[in-house]
Amino acid sequence: xxxxxxxxxxxxxxxxxxxxxxxxxxxxxxxxxxxxxxxxxxxxxxxxxxxxxxxxxxxxxxxxxxxxxxxxxxxxxxxxxxxxxxxxxxxxxxxxxxxxxxxxxxxxxxxxxxxxxxxxxxxxxxxxxxxxxxxxxxxxxxxxxxxxxxxxxxxxxxxxxxxxxxxxxxxxxxxxxxxxxxxxxxxxxxxxxxxxxxxxxxxxxxxxxxxxxxxxxxxxxxxxxxxxxxxxxxxxxxxxxxx
Length: 243
Ligand code: SF4
Ligand code: SF4
Description:
- Helices cover 39% and strands 13% of the residues.
- The chain contains ten helices and eight strands.
- The strands form three sheets. Strands 1-8-7 form a three-stranded antiparallel β-sheet. A three-stranded antiparallel β-sheet has the order 2-4-3. A two-stranded antiparallel ribbon has the order 5-6.
- It is globular, with a radius of gyration of 19 Å.
- The mean pLDDT is 93.
């Protein structure tokens, strides 16, 4: 998750410390946490969920996403739309119905991660573990996994790399502070980061590379891969929004 250090609540982990946590279907709380949550979706989450469900990005956004616009900056935040009874639409009796494509927020729990950019522009990260709470029975049952083991076993590394690219965009040193996006810029953010099937149509227009000074090899690569298209979208947005 991309959050500022100040927003993280929880306990910092010592290097190499094993997580006092184990979640498994034998617990009485199994599946109970997949409801009544504000589940934020980052761009790579939308890419993976759309792919996993076999739908276009615009279908996914229309069917599964709620949009919140931050009042002060205009920055759009996407959340998973819950069912009327508060359940995640993907939860099944046997567990997560989109397990191999589940979003960052579900993979990372009980950890949370803050990212900041160092002077060289490289992201550095800090992990904390959520405070124990009575509703989650996974605490207190160590599995012997360190943070690195956890991120590997939860398949977080690809998400971490993509989310670090988002951190580079969001924490861009050229970003005006305070940020105030116009309606057109909000649409550009949603298209280039979340609605990749529509962004692909724009990128495929014959004039796109010349208009935005892009090398044709970059465009060809982006048209052949969703991941490369998202990278192009992030780079393109950085120039569109921050010059
Ligand atoms: S242990 Fe925690 S994370 Fe696992 S199912 Fe129970 S409430 Fe959810
Ligand atoms: S995506 Fe999966 S793990 Fe996340 S809340 Fe929904 S059912 Fe639970």
